[in-house]
Amino acid sequence: MTRKRNLFGLDRAGLERVMAELGEPAYRARQLYVWLYRRRARSLEAMTDLGKGLRSRLESQFEICWPAVASREHSRDGTIKYLFRLDGEATIESVFIPEERRRTICISTQAGCPLRCAFCLTGIAGYKRNLEPWEILGQVAAVMDETARLEKPWNVVVMGMGEPLLNYEATVRALRILMDPEGFAIAPKKLTLSTVGILPALEKLMAEPVRPNLAISLHAPEPGLRRRLMPIEGKYRLDDVIAAAQRYPIPRGGRVTYEYVLLKDVNDSPAHARQLARLLGGSRAKVNLIPLNPAAEIPFGAPAPEAVDAFAGVLAAAHVTVSVRRPRGQDILAACGQLHLRDATGGASGSRASAR
Ligand code: SF4
Question: What is the pTM of this model?
Answer without folding.
Answer: 0.92
